[in-house]
Amino acid sequence: MTNFKEVIERKGTRSVKWDFADKLFKNEDILPMWVADMDFQVPDAVTTALQNRVSHGIFGYTLPDEDVKNTITSWVKNHYDYEIEKDWIFYSPGVVPSLHMLVQALSEIGDNVLIQTPVYPPFYSVIKNHGRHIIKNELTFDGERYDIDFEDFEQKIKDNNVTLFILCSPHNPVGRVWTEDELKKMADICLKYDVTILSDEIHADLVLGNNKHFSIASLSEDIDDATVTCYSPTKTFNLAGLQASYVVAKDKDKRKRLERQFHGQGINMLNTLGLTALEAAYKDGEQWLIDLREILAENVAYVRDRLHKETDTIKVIEPEGTYLLWLDCRKLGLEHEELKTFMQNEAKVGMNDGASFGEEGKGFMRMNIAAPKETIEAGVERLIQAVNKREA
Ligand SMILES: Cc1ncc(COP(=O)(O)O)c(C=O)c1O
């Protein structure tokens, strides 16, 4: 059984989070709480399946067969209440590569593409890199919670003739799990103006407490036709290095476009070990995921309670999903560059820079809490010490 309490040395594994942190944060004593992977081992069933596959010793070309397709359709049905057919599925090494391909497949050069900011940084590059333009529907923030400005959402689409909307659901970095009602409202506006919805649902399984994730495509036949969804087991089960994900598209015309884009770029397979891990995780990872969610909820509560009790200046935005905590550090009174320097040199906690998610993220930092309690405690302690020293 996975021991979520055990601290496992990741340095020396070429881990982006641990082995490349010193360079990024220019500090050898940094505690990495940044890039979105977890410091937990995967479900035992996944390790065993990988070991069995590795011991075969031959790693030629592999393709998902009917069994794998059935495993995927069952997961999507059971977890997102979304009935999909096997030939709606496309395979890809990752959601980011998919977003790049999908922007090209579903819009034209020069088109305007809507995103809700602050948002996961590649949302900007997948638009800009392919000659499309970014249109922002900024999320509103009342100091506690982020919401959607629907009026602005519709106006931006109308005024800019937007053709594609990239939805982050659940939302990284603000931690919102969009409600059925919010999703329906966004979808209705998209349908009204004939906007294609590209829904990145990589965090779909990582919902906290009583929050429920809805796949936007599942809400009606019409919305399903207007939507292409990206899913992946890699965030859920900590498999990012194995690179395996999939895209679901119901509408025939969209599937034709995807076919041309994916196959045209030689992408139609899954990495052998990624495929093995995906199948094992989806078949036998359920209990592990239930346990993980509890640990994440405990970590959120721990960080929030301690920071709010022991500092007046860092506010945790309560997440409904994801293992990424959005910290409002504006009360520290630092310019954004000063805040970054303070976090890396004084607190020595390696977090994602809020401004990398967009202008709206200035004064914020993103903390990854998918780690054993001991690591979380050490990170929070460092933060509190640094803040209190500064304010003394
Ligand atoms: C919203 C979102 N999409 C995509 C990714 C990365 O996907 P992949 O590793 O499959 O490219 C992340 C990782 O943090 C993410 O938060």
Automatic annotation (TrEMBL):
GO terms for molecular function: cysteine-S-conjugate beta-lyase activity; pyridoxal phosphate binding. Its EC number is 4.4.1.13. The keyword Lyase applies. SUPFAM superfamilies: PLP-dependent transferases. Belongs to the class-II pyridoxal-phosphate-dependent aminotransferase family. MalY/PatB cystathionine beta-lyase subfamily. Its cofactor is pyridoxal 5'-phosphate. It holds the Pfam family Aminotran_1_2. Residues 37-383 form the Aminotransferase class I/classII large domain. This is cysteine-S-conjugate beta-lyase. The keyword Transmembrane does not apply. It is an enzyme of class 4 (lyase). Keywords: Lyase, Pyridoxal phosphate. It comes from the Bacteria.
